[in-house]
Amino acid sequence: MKIYNIEMPPDLTFPALDSDTKAEIDALHAAMLRDQAEAEALVERRRAEGYVIPTHEEMLGRMRWDTRPLRQPAINVAALRELPPRMRAIFAYLYRHNITY
Length: 101
Known about the structure:
- The chain has helices at residues 19-48, 56-63, 77-82, 85-94; strands spanning 2-3, 6-7, 99-100.
- By secondary structure, it is mainly α.
- The chain is built from four helices and three strands.
- The chain is flat and about 55 Å long.
- The longest helix has 30 residues, at 19-48.
């Protein structure tokens, strides 16, 4: 099993997550997407009213003083080992799209 192309040791287990917790996580994610869409719609309405609101790219360009590429995500295996099994299960569910076998 790899997360972000980092091989996980075979003794590090990620238990299955119960369906209730998966449903709660999915509901929270859906709410976050709705909130983000509402915020983006508000920004577009304000821009249409004449407000000058910088784009995300413009804001990031102002915050980053260097031009180096962003570093790749990393996983701390030692920290994963210290998590309780339920938290490792939640972690694996949240990052399920970045896990390869």
